[in-house]
Amino acid sequence: MTNPFALVGRATLAFLASSGRLAIFAGNGLQHVVRPPFYFGLIGRQMLAIGYFSLPVVGMTALFTGMVLALQIYIGSSRFNAESAVATIVVIGITRELGPVLTGLMVAGRVSAAMAAELGTMRVTEQIDALTTLSTNPFKYLVAPRLIAATLTMPLLVLIADIIGVMGGYLVGTAKLGFNYGSYLKSTVDFLEPMDVISGLVKAGAFGFLLALMGCYHGYHSRGGAQGVGSATTNAVVSASVLILAANYLITELFFAS
Amino acid sequence: MTTPKLQLRGVAKHFGPKKVLDGIDLEVGKGESLVIIGGSGTGKSVMLKCVLGLIRPDRGEILIDGRNVVGLRGSAKEEYLSKFGMLFQGGALFDSLKVWQNVAFGLIQGRGMKKAQAKEIAIEKLGRVGLRADVGELYPSELSGGMQKRVALARAIATEPEIIFFDEPTTGLDPIMADVINDLIVECVKDLGASTLTITHDMASARKIADKLAMIYKGHIIWCGPKSEIDHSGNDYVDQFIHGRATGPISMDVLKP
Question: Are A141 and B109 in contact, with CB atoms under 8 Å apart?
Fold first, then answer.
């Protein structure tokens, strides 16, 4: 009955259609990000929700990641007597990769889900339609503040995660692995280049944009009551996570390939 | 001949292979109240969303004061939308905002009015629908269904629109509260002198609100006339609907075992 060509064709068409929808959505969102009026109150509220309330989970993630990184690198590098590299590898690993990526994934879990659920509920209870009938553009009022807030807040979160992550490595390095306090800090700072941190912060901004975009997109287009909102939330988190990982590779390549 | 306030000409819309609207023609005069009746899934809501610019019709024209508004965008669209007020079926109150902020939303966001002034008007409109000023400080989730409907009505009339749409205004309310809402609708509309378009399947509500009734079935307007003629329409479909009979020309798609 089912023609395999039809299956492939349908899947391809569906993929192209949703890519197109997403591109239009992103373009629409960006257009309202740069055009006044700006809702500073809403942006502030979103920054608080995204940034401040993500601090505990981001801090915990960074701390344990830094700690385990120090431990693992020590074990690995001791095989060829390179233990002294622990501090340097921890700081580069955290600032370039693990800080932005893990923060991105944790915030995607918290924030994309919350955005998709909120906008999805607003969609199915007709609140988004109500906005339009009250002469307010939902992109301007709902999407743009979230995109702006996430893009601005993520670099700040990642900066904090970088510091806490390095501190985690420092704690394990000095308390458990027997490094000297001063020399651990010195080798942390000595081989660190500004580009390590900057590239991480650029990634963070891009991840912030992506995770807010996914949350808004899936919420905005959710259909069919509680179940629709549920699957919008799941899709938001999954697609935000995958896009963050893919974007991470692309940005890394842009920064370091040349 | 005067131009009707709102006119639909041959509006059609399909979703995939399903024709939802198949050439709708309607007219609402200035200050007139038109009620559209019809069963579930006959295209009532889609028609309303076409007029509101939330869905773009495939064919046909929608004229406001004689001007076609299909496909308008940007500020031109905002301008015609500012003439509208809408009462949504579920109320569609913003649950992150207080009641008075909901009522004042169109004034503050749409018209750029100062907050203090908008709040005064909001409280006055809340009073208009029989709610005390302290209700304004509550959140929508703290209100009963009937109160939410009243707040939604206050929000719909807050900007003193020229055309107001009511989407199933009495659905989900007890008969007494439904009648209270009907009375409020009639009064508020009379005060404003607005034209209204109501979609409902509640005949008691339709008889109370309407000047003129129209029945929609399978994407067509099958009957349209003044309220006094609804009982002598001579149309079997209309008769079946207003008397709520399960048997007749309208067959529900119910699978029998």
Answer: yes
What is the value of pTM for the model shown?
0.86
CA distance B93 to B98: 9
Enclosing H/E stretch for B102 = helix B99-105
B1-52 pLDDT, tens per residue?
Answer: 578 888 888 888 888 888 888 888 888 888 888 999 887 777 888 888 888 8
CA–CA distance, B57 with B60 (Å, rounded to integer): 7
Find the CATH number of the domain harbouring B211: 3.40.50.300
Our count of domains for chain A comes to: 1
Query: Looking at the complex, does the CB of residue B88 fall below 8 Å from at least one CB of chain A?
Result: yes
Is the ipTM beyond the 0.90 threshold? Answer: no
Q: Regarding beta strands B67-68 and B18-28, do their DSSP bridges make them parallel or antiparallel, or are they unpaired?
A: unpaired
- Residue A204: both structure tokens together: 């963070």
Closest CB to B105 among A122, A125, A134: A134
Instruction: List, in sequence order, every beta strand (DSSP E) within chain B.
Output: 6-15, 18-28, 33-37, 59-64, 67-68, 84-87, 163-167, 195-200, 212-217, 220-226
For A20-28, the CB contacts below 8 A with 24+ separation are A21/A221, A22/A217, A25/A213, A25/A216, A25/A217, A25/A220, A25/A221, A26/A213, A26/A217, A28/A139, A28/A143
Q: Spell out which residues of chain A touch residue B110, defining contact as CB-CB under 8 Å.
A: 134-136
The domain tally of chain B equals: 1
For B42-89, how does the pLDDT look when each residue is reduced to its tens digit (9 = 90+)?
788 888 888 888 888 888 888 888 888 887 877 788 888 888 889 988
- Rounded Cα distance between A127 and A115, Å, is 14
Instruction: Tell which residue, B36, B10, B46, has the closest CA to residue B214.
Output: B36
Are B12 and B22 contacting, i.e. CB atoms less than 8 angstroms apart? yes
Q: Cβ of A132 and B52 within 8 Å?
A: yes
Band (pLDDT 50/70/90 cuts) for residue A148 is very high
Residue-wise pLDDT tens digits, A14-26:
989 989 999 999 9
Q: Which residue in chain A is spatially nearest to B157 when comparing CA positions?
A: A134
Q: How many CB pairs under 8 A join A and B?
A: 48
Domain span including residue B52? 1-73+198-257
Evaluate whether residue B174 is within a structural domain. no
Q: Is B132 among the domain residues?
A: no
**What is the identity of the amino acid at A114?**
A
Q: What are phi and psi of A225, to 5 degrees?
A: 65, -155
Angle between helices A225-256 and A194-220 (to 10 degrees): 160
Task: Flag whether A68 is in a domain.
Answer: yes
Cβ atoms of B123 and B178 closer than 8 Å:
no
